[in-house]
Amino acid sequence: MKFRFKAAAACAASVLGVAVLATGGDTEGVEYDPTAKALDEISQRDVGKRDWPQWGGWSGRNNTPEGENIPVEWDVSSGENILWKSPLGSQTYGNPVVANGKIYVGTNNNYGYISRFPKSVDLGCLICFDAETGKFLWQHSSPKLPTGRVHDWPEQGICDAPYVDGDRLWYVTSRGEVACLDTNGFLDGENNGPYTAEINENSNEADVIWMYDMMGELGVSQHNMCSCSVTVAGDLLFVNTSNGVDESHINIPSPDAPSFIAMNKNTGEVIWTDKSPGTNILHGQWSSPTYAVIGGTPQVIFGGGDGWVYSFVPEGDGNGNPKLIWKFDANPKDSKWILGGRGTRNNIIATPVVYDGLLYVAVGQDPEHGEGVGHLWCIDPTKEGDVSPTLAVDADGKPVPHRRLQAIDPEKGEKAIENSNSAVVWHYSEADLDDNGKIDFEEQMHRSCGTVAIKDDILYIADFSGLFHCLNAKTGEQYWTYDMFAAAWGSPLIVDGKVYIGDEDGDVAVFEHSKEQNMLAENNMENSVYSTPIVANNVLYISNKSTLFAIGNKSGE
């Protein structure tokens, strides 16, 4: 029976103050507009109506803001269409977030904004600027963990984006802490948290409301970095802990530590935890959660470090435990995990995206593992239980337990059988677009760190091999691919009838939003672009490795 949790979830939502926002978009006969969905959700937050206050802008995670007259071309050298620019650290992977006149970016400390932390001190930094002028306002500083690169890789800084609502901000530090900050810092002359600070009108330190140490409190052992862009529903804050392997890349030091948690956003109290990936974590866990209401049922959806996607009742079971709705294995059962990226088994780094009642997610690996085979899935999230494409069984047809390195061993007679409960709508791995009887490089989906962006049933995604794919979001039909000739770490932006995507060479390609390939421009940012472009209040924001740019059409044309 579908949605047996519906009544219970609705009841629990009213008790715990969980917002039941209609983000699924399954209204029959009505054209689905993700921008309208995003703006409706944002209007229920204490932020500006055209702000973009979290990674993906809203809990559906589809990067399709409203914008008009957004430039196609700009020049960072001459200043053409550059409204302002502000220096960041030397490595920037965090995506910009805009709310209430401020913009927030995660980076490292190579610029040295804070006097007590000169640029020679390696830190993870969340930096707040004035969104109109680019003026530096304040910084939250995270000293590196003494355990070194196994937990906190040197020079990497903050790799995720915050969630902002009113005068509060939530994010995950590079030290594996969930932090709640006052968005005004100490510039309002008040200390709103329990942490001692010297307050004066020039204070540019962060005002910390509360901190929760996931390593100390939950035994989490993050691998290389803790990176999760949190999301919120009502009073519930959802976090992927980044629990992972040790320096050997073989052992999992904390298999019983949770991978996914729900917290009270106001107090930092943990509501429930889940350790489903357990001993099957492949490497790290750097995906970010998605919240949606689909078919009337609220769901929080996590991408796991074991390559599975998990959906839970947002409130849990009421006793500190998770309540699973469905799970989906995004790897073929015969895929293998081999150290250093030499295998075909992947984990999930991308953020799941909700569009018109369907869920989209790609698999990938740490970019240092290089290129490899990838998969993009469109999933029906209205089912329950194991909704994987296939099931692993032994020679007698009995279920095989979930395994880390390979789901089935054909030499023992094990095999994958079709799952009658499969939630697959479509799967994209390769397509013979030119009908020549062979699969060319440009006709393959490769590993991806990127998240899809979808509008008008047209889907875009970049892979780590540098291909930018355009597909039919409802059928998976490939419309076109473009070879950027450089690795892409970020995700697309769809706005104002255009699509923007950056790459490791520092180029931002701009396409017409269309089933037909039509590149409008390519703009070089003079440094690698690892983050995702966003638009808020008709301004395009892009950060390269070392600089944040605000871009607008100066001519007004």
TrEMBL record:
Pfam families: PQQ_2. InterPro entries: PQQ_b-propeller_rpt, PQQ_rpt_dom, Quinoprotein_ADH-like_sf, WD40/YVTN_repeat-like_dom_sf. Residues 48-68 are annotated as: Disordered. Keywords: Signal. Residues 419-512 form the Pyrrolo-quinoline quinone repeat domain. Residues 1-22 form the signal peptide. The keyword DNA-binding does not apply. This is Outer membrane biogenesis protein BamB. The lineage of its organism: Bacteria, Pseudomonadati, Planctomycetota, Planctomycetia, Planctomycetales.
